[in-house]
Q: What sequence folds into this?
C-alpha cells in the first residue's frame, strides 16, 4: 500500500478529512503509529532473506495500518519467477524468523489463523491466471483479492508485489470487453470495471458464507469477536473495493484529465489501491465535501469514521477483546460489552449504507446500477 500513511495522519487523506470535519480520531491514529513500529521491526527481521523475485507481504490489520493489541501477523511470501528450489529455502528462513516467539511477544501480535491461507508460500501464476473457473479456489481468490485490497510489502524487496498486482489489474481490465464503450441505451461511456467489481463482490459474499462455516466448524468459539469484525473491518474492505471500481469514473474521482483508455484505468486503480481502505474512503469524502451534497456527506463521514474509531478502540482494549472472544452466543442479549460492539457495528453499517445508497449520495446511481443490478 502507500509508503507514507504510517508516518501518522498528517499529509494523508485521513488527516485532511479530520481537518475539514474538525474531528480527532485518536484510536485510528494510535493504530497507525503502532503499525508503523511493527512494520519497521518486521522489515528488519527479514532483512537479507527474500530473493530478487520475491516479496514478503503482510495482510490484515497490519496492511490496513490498524494494528491493535493482539492483531494477527498474517503474512505470505509471494514468488514471481520460474520454479526454483531456492524459493522453499527462502520461505523456511522467513517462516523461522517471523515465527519466533519473541516476535509475537515483542510486537504483541498473534500467529496466523489455522486455515493456512497466511504464513504460506504463494506463486504469482495461479493468482494472475486462475480468475474464475474450477481452479480458482477460495484460497486463491482470497490471496488475489487481498493482494489488491489489503496488502503491504515489507522490507526492500517489493518489485514482485508491484509486478503481480499490476498483472492482476491488467487481467481484469483487458478482459472486460465492454469497458470504456458506449452503452446501447445511453451515450455515456461505461467506466466501471465490472469484471473486477464482481470478483470483489464474490469475495465479500465468500467471507459472509465462511463466517457461518467457521461458526459451525469451531463450535461458536470466538463467534462474537468474528461477528464484530465481519460487520466493520471486513465490510470496510469490501466498501473500499467497490469504491475503487467507481473511482475509475471521473465523476467520482473528480479527475477531469482521466483518459478513456485501459492503461489509464490500470494506473488509476493501482494508485487508488495503494492507499489503505480507510484512506480510500476518506479521499472520496474530501473530494466531495464542497458539492451540493456536502452537509449530508459531512454527517455520513463523521458517523462512519467515529464508529470505526470506536471499533479500533474496543479491539485495543485487551479485556473487552478477550471478553468478546470468549462470549457464548446465548449470552449476547444481556452482555454489556457485546451491546457496545453491536451499537458500533450498527452505526458503521448505517454510515456505509448512506455513503453508497443515500438519496443524495454521488455513489447512489452507480451502486444500484452496477453494484446491485
A:
Amino acid at each position: 500500500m502507500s509508503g507514507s500513511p504510517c508516518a501518522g495522519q498528517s499529509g494523508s487523506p485521513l488527516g485532511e478529512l479530520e481537518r475539514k470535519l474538525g474531528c480527532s480520531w485518536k484510536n485510528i491514529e494510535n493504530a497507525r503509529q503502532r503499525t508503523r513500529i511493527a512494520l519497521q521491526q518486521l522489515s528488519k527481521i527479514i532483512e537479507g532473506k527474500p530473493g530478487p523475485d520475491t516479496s514478503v507481504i503482510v495482510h490484515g490489520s497490519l496492511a490496513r495500518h490498524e494494528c491493535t493489541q493482539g492483531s494477527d501477523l498474517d503474512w505470505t511470501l509471494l514468488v514471481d519467477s520460474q520454479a526454483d528450489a531456492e524459493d522453499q529455502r527462502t520461505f523456511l528462513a522467513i517462516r523461522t524468523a517471523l515465527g519466533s516467539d519473541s516476535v509475537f511477544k515483542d510486537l504483541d501480535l498473534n500467529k496466523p489463523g489455522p486455515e493456512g491461507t497466511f504464513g504460506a508460500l504463494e506463486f504469482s501464476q495461479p493468482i494472475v491466471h486462475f480468475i474464475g473457473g474450477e481452479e480458482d479456489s477460495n484460497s486463491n481468490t482470497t490471496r488475489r483479492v487481498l493482494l489488491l485490497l489489503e496488502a503491504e510489502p515489507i522490507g526492500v524487496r517489493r518489485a514482485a508485489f508491484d509486478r503481480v498486482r499490476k498483472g492482476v489489474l491488467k487481467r481484469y481490465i483487458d478482459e472486460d470487453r465492454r469497458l470504456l464503450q458506449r452503452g446501447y441505451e445511453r451515450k455515456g461511456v461505461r467506466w466501471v470495471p465490472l469484471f473486477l467489481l464482481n470478483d470483489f463482490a464474490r469475495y465479500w459474499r465468500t467471507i459472509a458464507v465462511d463466517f457461518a462455516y467457521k461458526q459451525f466448524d469451531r463450535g461458536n468459539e470466538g463467534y462474537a469477536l468474528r461477528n464484530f469484525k465481519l460487520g466493520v473491518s471486513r465490510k470496510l474492505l469490501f466498501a473500499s473495493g467497490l469504491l475503487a471500481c467507481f473511482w475509475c469514473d471521473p465523476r467520482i474521482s473528480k479527475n477531469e484529465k482521466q483518459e478513456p483508455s485501459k492503461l489509464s484505468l490500470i494506473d488509476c486503480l493501482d494508485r487508488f489501491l495503494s492507499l489503505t481502505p480507510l484512506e480510500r474512503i476518506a479521499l472520496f469524502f474530501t473530494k466531495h465535501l464542497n458539492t451540493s451534497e456536502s452537509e449530508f456527506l459531512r454527517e455520513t463521514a463523521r458517523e462512519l469514521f467515529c464508529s470505526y474509531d470506536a471499533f479500533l478502540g474496543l479491539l485495543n482494549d485487551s479485556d473487552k477483546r478477550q471478553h468478546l472472544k470468549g462470549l457464548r452466543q446465548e449470552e449476547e442479549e444481556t452482555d454489556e460489552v457485546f451491546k457496545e460492539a453491536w451499537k458500533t457495528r450498527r452505526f458503521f453499517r448505517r454510515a456505509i449504507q448512506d455513503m453508497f445508497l443515500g438519496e443524495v449520495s454521488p455513489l447512489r446511481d452507480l451502486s444500484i446500477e452496477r453494484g446491485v443490478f
Remarks:
- Residues 174 and 359 are 34 Å apart (CA to CA).
- The mean pLDDT is 91.
- The beta strands are 54-58, 71-72, 75-79, 109-110, 120-123, 152-154.
